[in-house]
Design brief:
Blueprint: H1 11-27, H2 50-59, H3 64-69, E1 73-76, H4 89-104, E2 108-114, H5 122-134, E3 137-140, H6 143-151, E4 158-159, E5 176-181, H7 184-187, H8 195-211, E6 216-218, H9 232-241, E7 247-248, H10 254-262, E8 264-269, H11 272-279, E9 285-289, H12 294-300, E10 306-308, H13 315-325, H14 329-344, H15 347-352
Helix pairs in contact: 2-4, 4-5, 8-13
């Protein structure tokens, strides 16, 4: 299973892993799984640089091809949103080359439900076209991605949704009022949003909620690690800034965060899987979108509450307006969860004929 994990500090990546296992087990109950991602690299697969992968293939050193040959299926999740070059061409190239070499080793490759595109560079599009062509099945998780795949020469086999909606429901939800996921990625200098605008939006949301008498808890969705792209330091910084008026809930893992969002009245998040984890438990979630991946996926599952951090004049005010004025959030979230389940329902039958 590529680019998903049961151990990643990014709980969205863990959700992809859990949702994938639950889905694939429904087709092949006795299947066993190996996870591969940048934090869980087998010695045989040199993921440091695209050249390293090419060298391992051409020189036949390190045992990469023999390691790949042992698998029946490459379930390629691309971490949900990395079948694109928005995170850099090197990342896209490494993921794409692994897919290519797996198919050359005789492994059946399936592109799991994910965002497809955008691709800004010619090389990225060439690699994407080849991966799409070499895949036995291709699933998109939103209509825009399905169209992007078609433009690259491969119609998707099914337009589905995110795999988080295939995870079993939490059994021990913890009651909370408002959970606010603050993205450490966006809090610092980044290529996605104006960090000053994002910081001002988050602060105005917290201040507005507190003035409304709401109980606010900050929720990291990427746990602390040596990677600066994590949410815990930012949440601790805001806890100090608001002098303890807000709490911080650091989940121990995927089950813990799903228990937390399942018991909340509403979740506000810039990490998309913080929002999707919530919606998959019928908890309303207001998404603070920073890329193309948010809006079309949410629209496809009938969830309208997506605020673009880049396009909205005052994202914080827009979020507060939804919370203050929309009184059907819970019932709407229940409809969204049902719609998402319907979109995933047809995948097992297609997978059954893939091997």
């Amino acid at each position: 299973m590529a680019w998903a994990s049961d151990l990643s500090p990014n709980l969205g990546v863990r959700a992809l892993g859990r949702g994938s296992v639950d889905l694939l087990k429904s087709v092949w109950p006795d299947a066993t799984f190996d996870f591969l991602d940048f934090g869980n690299k087998p010695a045989q697969v040199p993921l440091g640089h695209p050249r390293s992968l090419l060298k391992a293939r051409v020189m036949a050193r390190g045992g990469m091809m023999d390691w790949l040959k042992q698998f029946d299926l490459l379930w390629d999740t691309r971490s949900g949103d990395s079948f694109a070059d928005i995170y850099g061409t090197n990342r896209h190239a490494k993921m794409s080359l692994l897919h290519e070499f797996a198919t050359e080793a005789g492994v059946t490759a399936v592109l799991a439900p994910q965002t497809i595109g955008p691709f800004q560079h010619t090389t990225a599009r060439v690699l994407a076209k080849r991966n799409l062509r070499r895949s036995r099945l291709v699933f998109a998780r939103d209509p825009v991605s399905a169209k992007a795949s078609a433009r690259l020469g491969r119609k998707v086999d099914r337009m589905a949704t995110d795999l988080v909606f295939g995870i079993h429901q939490p059994t021990a939800p913890c009651e909370r009022d408002v959970l606010v996921n603050v993205s450490g990625l966006l809090w610092r200098a980044n290529d996605h949003v104006d960090l000053t605008k994002y910081r001002e939006s988050v602060r105005s949301i917290i201040a507005g909620l507190l003035s409304d008498g709401r109980d606010v808890t900050l929720l990291p969705h990427v746990l602390d690690s040596l990677d600066p792209d994590n949410d815990v330091p930012t949440c601790r910084e805001l806890e100090r800034e608001f002098d303890g008026a807000v709490g911080v809930l650091v989940p121990k893992g995927l089950e813990d965060v799903r228990d937390a969002v399942a018991g909340a009245n509403v979740v506000i998040g810039a990490r998309m899987h913080a929002c999707l984890n919530a919606l998959s438990t019928s908890t309303p979630a207001i998404a603070m979108a920073y890329s193309r991946k948010f809006e079309p996926l949410m629209k496809a599952i009938d969830w309208p509450h997506v605020i673009s951090v880049t396009e909205a004049e005052d994202p914080g005010a827009d979020v507060l307006q939804i919370i203050r004025n929309c009184h059907d959030l819970k019932s709407r979230a229940q409809i969204t969860r049902s719609r998402a389940s319907e979109l995933l329902a047809g995948i097992p039958q297609l997978l059954g004929g893939a091997l």
